[in-house]
Amino acid sequence: MNYLYLSLNILTIFFPLILSFDRKVAFYREWKYLFPAILIMGVFFIGKDVVFTAYDIWAFNDDYLIGQRLLGLPIEEWMFFVVVPYACVFIYACLIAYLKTDPLKHLHRPFLLVVSGVLIVVSVIYYDRMYTSIVFFITAILLIINVLTRQPWLSMFLLSYFVAWIPFLLINGILTGSFIENQVVSYNPAHNLNFRIFTIPIEDSVYNLLMLMMTVQLMEWFKKRAKAN
Fold first, then answer.
1. Inside any domain, residue 112
2. pLDDT by residue (tens digit) across 44-69?
3. Does the pTM of the predicted model rise above 0.85?
């Protein structure tokens, strides 16, 4: 069982990595934009992860880890911030390649503004719950900025986020205790809403939204800059 988190990471990236060479998607061509985006996003998220772990906002169960840590984080957690963004951005690229129309083109802006408003209100009401307040507030601000600046990638990104819920429920479900005896990642109830989707804290879904949005936004910015040059 001490290889569980490592195995989940490998499972997450295995098929997206192989299918990156699909002729229509040709995701490997995006690597020169994607990996710098993952690196920048990773610096932010790993820094936050180190602080959250130090302050006992969450903790990792050594029973499911190989035992190596860096800056207090398991090696598997470092891997998480590469394999999950890669797999989810791969979904985003597939939707762009295979969908002829954008089903959320006229819906994503009002939807995301409402979501942003809810996140801000909740972050203010529960300001003392660090996981909830910090992640909800930062996500809301970034969403508002991208909606108001009418980012062209935002609609398809939102659709890819919804599609990514399928593997999210499985992988995050296992990490938070579904199908196994204990949790790989345990959460301090003093710092979240204690509302769960199956075994997954609701905050994880917003955390995932923020992580993926930052990655796609940075990747698209690198692409735009490359075309301009």
1. no
2. 999 999 999 999 999 999 999 999 99
3. yes
